[in-house]
Amino acid sequence: MPKESLSAQILAEFPVPKDRSFLYRVRQALPDLHPAEKRLGEFVCDFPGELASYSAQELAILAHVSKATVTRFIQRLGYENYEEARRHARAEKQTGSRLFLTSAADVSTAQSVQAHVSQGVANLEATFLSITDGQIEAVAQALLQARKVWVLGFRSSHPFASYLQWQLTQVVEEIVAIPGAGQTLGEHLVSVQEDDMVIFFAMRRRIAQIDTIISLIRKSKAKLVYITDESAPFEGGANWHFSCQTLAPGPLFNHTAVMALCHLLITRCLEKAGPEGRKRLRTIEALNEGLDEL
HTH rpiR-type domain location, by residue (predicted)? Predict the structure, then answer.
């Protein structure tokens, strides 16, 4: 008797409600499917976006199974019909899962360097059409005047928060990236004050507690810069909400515009810091030289 896979054991140990995730329905059903249905299930797990985009007949052709197999497969997942399953898959597609961003055709088609460059340029242009010089000036001024700056990011947003904090340390003395390794957010949020500033990176896929965190920041009355991708709804509670385009020719998001925004904010802060900012930079460089670290 074949040994049950680790993934199947995990899914059995931690069952997920059926209405929570389309992909979980598929993964939970896989061990009990007939061969043709299992082949279809594995195809859907690899390319769930295909079900969200195509008809039952088109999906059958892509997965090399019969339309009747598609019908039985959908019923085994607990859906009344294919359209109900497709609506569920489309809803899940909006969460930003990378699995939904690729297709079976993409696997055998390498995207050219020019395609990636062109998309990066297009993302930059689309992002900065909605960002004004006045907004950048206001954010830079608020950063320099804040009692303390908190830079926040989870998952893929965490590196952007760390990068911005690292660069701004050159001109902003009281700045910290949160949460750090082994830390929870509570011990930081308790210290956020009205004259502080929070920069919150929230690129997809976002954690479930986003709204709660924003609500807590608003209660503190600290200024909030909210930086997201284009899929996030506009956040009226933020002082500034910058939406960055992240489209890409492949399955991963393109964060060129996010880094460009970081660079712009850092540079504008350095420019506005004036003589005091340059003095801090000179001192940092002198200390690095004296410590023989670089």
Answer: 20-96
**Residue 187 belongs to some domain of the structure:** yes
Angstrom CA distances, 208 to 52, 179, 202, 204, 212, stand at 23, 16, 11, 11, 9
- Answer whether 184's CB lies under 8 Å from 282's CB: no
Q: Which residues pair with 262 in a beta bridge?
A: none
Residue 169 structural domain: 114-290
Q: How many domains does the chain have?
A: 2
**Same domain? 52 vs 142:** no
Strands in 203-288 per DSSP E: 223-229, 240-244
pLDDT tens-digit profile of 86-96? Answer: 888 777 655 54
Record the pTM.
0.65
Name the residue with tokens 């295909």. Answer: 50
Indicate the residue among 50, 72, 107 that finishes a domain.
Answer: 107
For residues 109 and 68, the answer to whether their CB atoms sit within 8 Å is: no
Q: 126 is written with which tokens?
A: 């689309």
Helix (H) or strand (E) holding 178: strand 175-178
Q: From CA 232, how far away is CA 106, in angstroms rounded?
A: 26
Give tens-digit pLDDT for 213-222.
888 989 889 9
Give the integer Cα–Cα distance in Å for 149 and 178: 10
Report the C-alpha gap between 246 and 165 in whole angstroms. Answer: 22
DSSP-derived 3-state class of residue 10? helix
